[in-house]
Amino acid sequence: MSQTTPLANNVKFVKTETEVPLTLPVKAIDEKGQVVDKHVACERPLTVYLNWRPIVTLMTLGAKPESLTLGYLKNQGFISDLTLLESVIVDWDVSSAVVITKETSDDIEAKLAEKTVTSGCGQGTVYGGLMQGVDDIQLPTPSIKQSIIYQLLKNISAYNDTYKNAGAVHGCGICQQDEILAFVEDVGRHNAVDTLAGDMWLNQQAGADKIFYTTGRLTSEMVIKVAKMGIPLLLSRSGVTQMGLELAQQLGITLIARAKGKHFLVYHGAETIEFDVL
Predict the structure, then answer these.
(1) CATH code given to domain 2-132
(2) How confident is the model at residue 1 (pLDDT cuts 50, 70, 90)?
(3) Residue tagged active-site, from 42, 121, 172, 175
(4) What's 144-274's CATH class?
């Protein structure tokens, strides 16, 4: 059994009626030797196909497979024209997601051949198309108050439902000032950012006035993907890598890391922040 639903821009998706849980109940033994009821985060493979050609198998929580699939393919440079998309077919019975598009992909083999094993958890591989168009990205200069950062960090604590229930996942959010517009959790931070990228692309949402929040570290891949979303401010609970910092400097992204409670470190773009809390 399957159901067909229109997505944004008249793209159709077909999805089996089989629902997948995000967590499962388990028994554990605590430090006192007592049996306790807990939950663990689910992790399942999802093989992505482009016009029935297998591209990659992602390990994912499975919360929003359509957006994850589209965001992944777009970020990796396999698709770029929203008007040529026809459908997304998700079938958890065979752990697959198929994107059908009229867009030509003559260089798909070349992109697949240029593979890099990355530092990303839950994904670990990027292809040659990831850097496609990066030099052409023009981002606006953001502006944010220190007090807004504090309020945003406070507000974001109301999310992370799967993490609070089971741990073992990363969370990413699209924010506007201190408001969280969208939040996604997955076993890998790259899956979460790809899912949000897919959502923004489908709905043609602008990123110029947005903030991207992540619980994960700010590596080169994370900075590139956020830049492709048109978002000029990146905020993380974790740290920064050398390549992530260099790309942020190159692209003009305000990079804020180690952000938790009343603490944060600005690695690039301090001039875009109004320090209004003494």
Answers:
(1) 3.10.20.10
(2) very low
(3) 121
(4) alpha beta
